[in-house]
Amino acid sequence: MPPDTRAPRRPLLENISLWRLRRYLRPYVGKLVFIWLAAIVGISASIALPLVGERVVDGPVRDGDSRALLLLGSLALGLGVLEALLIFLRRWAQIGPVLGLETRIRDDLYAQLQRLPMRFHGEWQSGQLLSRATTDLSTIRRFLGFGMLFLVMNILQLITVTVLLLNMYWPLGVLVAVSAVPIVLLSMRFEKRYIRISRQVQDEQGDLATLVEESAIGIRTIKAFGRRHHVFERYDEAARRLYGTSMEKVRLSARFFTFLEVIPNVTLAMVLLLGALAVGQGSLTLGALFAFTTLVLQLVWPIASLGYILAMAQEAMTAADRVLEVLDTVPEITGGRGRIERPRGHLRFEGVEFRFPGADRPVLHDLWLEVRPGETVAVVGATGSGKTTLTALVPRLLDVTGGRVTIDGHDVRDLELPELRSIVATAFEEPTLFSMSVRENLTMGRLDATEEEVDDAIRTAQAMFVYDLPWGLDTRIGEQGMSLSGGQRQRLALARAVLSRPRILVLDDTLSALDVETEALVEAALREVLREATGIVVAHRASTVLLADKVALLAGGTITHVGRHHDLLAEVPEYRQLLAQDADLDPSEGALR
Amino acid sequence: MTSATTGWRGVASEDQDELPDKVSGLLRARSRRLLGDLLAPHRKGIMVLTAVIIASSGAGLAIPYLVKVGIDAGIPPMLRGEGTGTLLTVVGVILAAAAAQALTRQAFLKMSGRIGHQILLELRRRVFDHFQRLSLSFHEKYTSGRVISRLTSDIEAIAELLQAGFDGLVTAVLTMAGTAVLLLVLDVELGLVALVPLPILLLFTRWFRRQSAIVYRRTRETVALVIVHFVESMTGMRAVQAFRREPRNQEIFERLNDDYRQANARSMRLIAVFMPGIKLIGNLTVAAVLFYGGWLAFHGEVTVGVLTAFLLYLRGFYEPMQEISQFYNTLQSASAALEKLSGVLEEEPAVPEPRAPRPLPQARGEVRFEDVRFAYVESMPILPGLDLAIPAGQSVALVGSTGAGKTTLAKLISRFYDPTAGRVLLDGADLQELDEPTLRRAVVMVTQENFLFNGTVLDNIMFGRPGATERQVREAAQAIGAHDFIASLPDGYHTDVGKQGGRMSAGQRQLVAFARAFLADPAVLILDEATSSLDVPSERLVQRALRTILADRTALIIAHRLSTVEIADRVLVMERGEIVEDGPPDRLVAADGRFAGLHRAWLESLS
Ligand SMILES: Nc1ncnc2c1ncn2[C@@H]1O[C@H](COP(=O)(O)OP(=O)(O)OP(=O)(O)O)[C@@H](O)[C@H]1O
Ligand SMILES: Nc1ncnc2c1ncn2[C@@H]1O[C@H](COP(=O)(O)OP(=O)(O)OP(=O)(O)O)[C@@H](O)[C@H]1O
Ligand SMILES: [Mg+2]
Ligand SMILES: [Mg+2]
């Protein structure tokens, strides 16, 4: 759960959020001016058209002037065509800016998400991120594309008509102007509540997306336990919650919208009443009252539709707020400036401490470890002792909270990130593959790898099965590699790490899903690779530990012993406990040995 | 293939980007059917709704008329000094009409909102449930991103229609119909002239519908691809960053995003033509009526008054067309979405539920394979023909080199897939004859990938048996030796495991998954590499627990660490989908075959 998604924001800030997105419109300033001009002229044309009609009837037709009829008729025709043309031009011109804005924000959002560190991704549900990248962006697009235009047009029309009314007969004009007061007051109150509730709806939509994602990715587990109903109930509960909130929103806006329709109608009745009285007193002519009411009638629709447009505006604001929440997050892990000319891969952990945010004790503390260039160290520790965490500190997937990690004497935080991550490659304990071609999965770390290098890596990882896939290296593997067997996935991930030819190769328990024979083959090949590179090998099994020149025992959050496997086995009881299969085994359990 | 942005996806057996598109006529029929189905329970509500909106529009349209009446009929008597009675009555009626309009309108908004959201809720529930019913083979092709896009962006397209559409449509249609009648009543000839463009309008609309059906389908497909890529990169962000794939990913994403932009642009261009087109037809009609009406008026065939009224009402006829075309536009977008959703809903599970399920009150756990053949892809058989009988209560270890087909065999017992030929039987009943609850109660599999759900450790273990008490959960954890680590977590059993279990270490996830399966207490327990990420002491604890756990149930244990095999009564060695050795462990070791070799290698690896 992202920590602060539900934190209420001040409306003022939200206004700024949407405003801050204006820079995405900057490349289109010319077009935008054109759009607004077209809109204004188009609306003028649509207002002029009926006037011309009336003129025709009142003038030429009454007088039997056929030439004037032809003339004015042609004018009406021209205006009609012009209006349609302007609408066409406006809509056509809008496409570029509106979609450009949406597309570019989405690109930027994606880029930002790729920059944000693993810690961020561990906290934020992808559903929430996705709903920002899709739903929220289209809300913004719709408002900036159409809503805003209408909002401004409506307000302009309201002001113009009100000014006209004030000019015509000020007492009634004031009455009409005063009727705007409850509208403004109520709009403000409505806005506050609407912002809260539309934010809630958007967040709940994100939650729903998260549940959907989970149910799709976890489908095997759900099926394995036959928990379809259980999962459905969770989803149903969230969907009903969303329904409830949406209904609250419907009720709120229904009240507001109808209120906006009542006010001008009541005003109209008052104008009629007071206007009639004024006519009675002789301070207003009947014709003027007629004109006055006709104008007031014109106000009804712009005011009534204001509700809908304001709601749209508020949704766009909360959407902008949600998008900026991500865009504004400052990546805590950013690269330094340093480069290492010829990295040798001399890795040192110097008094490293690591604490997960919010945890009361550190996972790692006072951790010292040195791995010389070309040397391989095995990290051995109990389940959950912090081995994976330790390896994540080197490529800065996580950052130390104390001490430092250095490569060839450079603090990893001083190095450029791409540089650092090309020095270190990790084969993760979970293979983490993508539904793309085998080749693309393999060459992730080195796009320019030659065919031979790819072959070599495949051979090292004993992943020759890829050649037997229906389209060889071009076969697309299923989502997260799921169309492969467990051991196949792992070997592919291993080949990927090997292929990027890192100075420092990290293997996080990457042989666990292999059968003994394959494991032996892989180990033999890896020995070659590790001769040249610095290696960190996380291992639970003695066989894997033997890949390393020395072993570091991770216990209680720090490295307690470093030494050779056999020495540690002989001298350190904890180590024996962890690695020796036959340690404290009662005879019945050793039946097979 | 690594060139630019094309080959990266690779080739798959069929390009299952979308469900196979059948004849487009069929598609529309099927989404219509779905729509009818969704609307059916609300038939009464919709009728009431229509009545309410007619009342509301009536009141709304009456107000301008009443104002005119007020001026025409209310003021003269007042000026004549006959009192303000008429005027006050009219003002009163206006206020009443305004109140009536407000009330009916509010009722309408609330009611239509409720119906709309109920339909959405129902659609969400149906599609979600159906996705959960569909078999694994479907999900493997369809991918989670596409599931998500169906349940988010497609549903939203429909939501937009339900929220914004109906209201405007009804008012517009009412106004138009009313006006058309009025026009004809005023003057038949002129009225017909005014209505001449109607067929053109219909043709134009048909053109738009044809075009937009294609365009909006494309929009839905491209947005799905954006979502798929987005979701997958977020899920695999660790690898993305560690292997510096960001630039390449960005390139791909921007390309997909641009495809989506282009699809959107096409639909917007279509609207940019359609909407002003309608406007143009309307305006041309006004001009035509002006000319023709003027000409008629010259010749005294219509009165000036009629012509004035005509022009006034004509606007009322073509103005709502805008509203209708706007509605039409959302409708097209929604129907493209509906088409996708109805396609999903019509997809039959490849592993169907039996029509007449066979009861199996108390599974004993005898598993039999009868000449079972299986292939994921037709051309590549994984199991060429398997016969195997596992008596109830037996613990069987399944070993063999990676990719041999062990997991596949296990998945067949769990009926993730149905065999291509042959039968899998549980207690003599073909799995295809058992309904899902029965089968799942009897058979539970701990998969090679330990998926944890968002929530606490407790929630996750309880997933194995939703009704379990916290004490039973604790006991399950204790039994397999996971209790100690769980208790030491910050909030014990109530610790949040994080997004997809991200706050647990790999081994801890495995222990939780194991506890979950243990709590489910099935007759047949399948463990697929369930201890591969554990350290040796934890593994040993689990094994010790297994001895008691497995005493009275059938078990299939797949493991590469032969330590696990020690607790088995029987070992199966699998190579290339065939069982090559079968027997008690000690006999196989002595027999000096494949297993003996594996065992020797394993012993050596322990040194
Ligand atoms: N994101 C996180 N937030 C909080 N705690 C975490 C997080 N990730 C891991 N931990 C905790 O940190 C500890 C170390 O985890 P780590 O994954 O490094 O263990 P490990 O040694 O790799 O274990 P294994 O052998 O099971 O893979 C564990 O106790 C785990 O619960
Ligand atoms: N969903 C799938 N679609 C297509 N092919 C698959 C799928 N799952 C597995 N395969 C293929 O079927 C073969 C057998 O896979 P399976 O997972 O049964 O192997 P396994 O014996 O469990 O191996 P491991 O020990 O590595 O887990 C492999 O070649 C694999 O590539
Ligand atoms: Mg780990
Ligand atoms: Mg397997």
UniProtKB/TrEMBL annotation, chain A:
- A Pfam entry, by short name: ABC_tran
Identify the InterPro entries for this entry. AAA+_ATPase, ABC1_TM_dom, ABC_transporter-like_ATP-bd, ABC_transporter-like_CS, Type_1_exporter
Q: Where is the signal peptide?
A: none
List locations, semicolon-separated: Membrane
Residue ranges crossing the lipid bilayer per the database entry: 28-49, 69-89, 143-166, 172-190, 256-280, 286-311
**What sequence ranges are listed for the domain ABC transmembrane type-1?**
37-315
Q: Which residues form the ABC transporter domain?
A: 347-581
The name on file for this protein is: ABC transporter ATP-binding protein
TrEMBL record, chain B:
Keyword annotations from UniProtKB, A to Z: ATP-binding, Membrane, Nucleotide-binding, Transmembrane, Transmembrane helix
Transmembrane parts of this sequence: 46-67, 87-104, 164-184, 190-208, 270-292, 298-318
Q: Which GO terms describe its molecular function?
A: ATP binding
On whether Methyltransferase is a keyword of this UniProt record, the answer is no
Localization of this protein: Membrane
The UniProt record lists the ABC transmembrane type-1 domain at 48-333
Instruction: Note one Pfam family from the annotation.
Output: ABC_tran
Record's bilayer topology term = Multi-pass membrane protein
> Which superkingdom?
Bacteria
Q: Which residues form the ABC transporter domain?
A: 367-601
Specify the protein name: ABC transporter ATP-binding protein
Annotated organism of origin: Nonomuraea harbinensis
